[in-house]
Amino acid sequence: MLYAPAQASTRGQASTQAHAHAHAPADADAHAQAQALLPLDRTLGVVLAVLLLAAVGVAALARLDHDDGRPYARALLTAGLRAAVQLAAVSAVIGWVVGAVPSLLGFVGLMLAVAIRTAGRRITDNTTWRWAAVPIAAGVLPVLAVLLLTGLVPLRGIALIPVAGILTGGALTATVLAGRRALEELETRRGEVEAALALGFPLREARLEIARPAAAGALLPGLDQTRTVGLVTLPGAFVGMLLGGASPVTAAAVQLFVLVALLLVQVVAVAVVLELIACDRMHRLALRTAEGE
C-alpha cells in the first residue's frame, strides 16, 4: 500500500509524457507548415523590399496624390517601413503583454487609441477628429464585452489580442470610409443641403438625406469579404487556425464568427459616424463656411 501513491504518480507522469509526445509531432507539423508558407530568410526580406518599392514606383508613375496634393508614393513607403518596425516591436513584447490581464487590457487600449487618432485625422484635420472615438468604441467595445462575458474569448493568453485587433481594424476602416465619403458628399452637394434648409428641413435631416447613401457605401468591403469568403479569399483567421493545427471545420467556425462580429462592428461604426456628421459634431471648416454657419 505504501507504493500505491508512488505507482499512481509514476503512471500520471507517464501519461503526461505520452500526451506531450503525442502533441509534439502536431506542433512540429504546424511549425513546418508555417515555415514552408513564408521561410524567414534573406529571400523574404528581398522580396518584401521589391514589392514595396514596386508599389511606390507605380504610385509615382500614376501620379496618385492625396486631396491636398501630397503624393501617395511617400505614404506607401512610410507605411511599409512603419509596419515592419511595429510588427518587430510587437513580436518582441507580445510574450510579456499576454502574461497578465492589466498589460493585456492596456495593449487593447493602445490599439483603440491608435485607431481613433488614425481615423479621426483621416476624416478631418481640425479638433473634431476626437469624435472618432465614439464610432470606434461603440462598435468594438460592446462586441468584445459580449465575447468576454460569454466565454467565447477568454480574458487571458493570446486569444483576446487578435480578435480585438480584427474588430478594431474593421471599425477603423468603416469609420474612415463613411466619414470621408459623407463629408465629401456634403461639400460637393452643399447647394442641395442649402435648398433643403430653405424648405424648412432641420440641419440634421438635410445632411442625412445627402450623406447617408455615401456613408453606407463604407459597408461594401466588409460585405464583399463575407460574401466571397472561401470562394475568393481565405482570411487570416482561417489560415492562422489551420497553421496552428486546428481542423478545417474549427477554422471555418472561427472565421465565420469573426466575419459576423465584424459586420456588426462596421454597421455600428458607420451609423454612429454618420450621425455625428449630421449633427455637426464632426466637420470640416470649409463645409461650415459654405453653409454659412
UniProtKB/TrEMBL annotation:
Coiled coil: none annotated. Residues 7-16 have a biased composition (Polar residues). The keyword Membrane applies. Residues 1-25 are annotated as: Disordered. It is a multi-pass membrane protein. Keywords: Membrane, Transmembrane, Transmembrane helix. The chain crosses the membrane at residues 44-64, 132-153, 159-179, 228-246, 252-278. Pfam families: UPF0014 (PF03649). Belongs to the UPF0014 family. This is ABC transporter permease. It comes from Streptomyces marispadix.
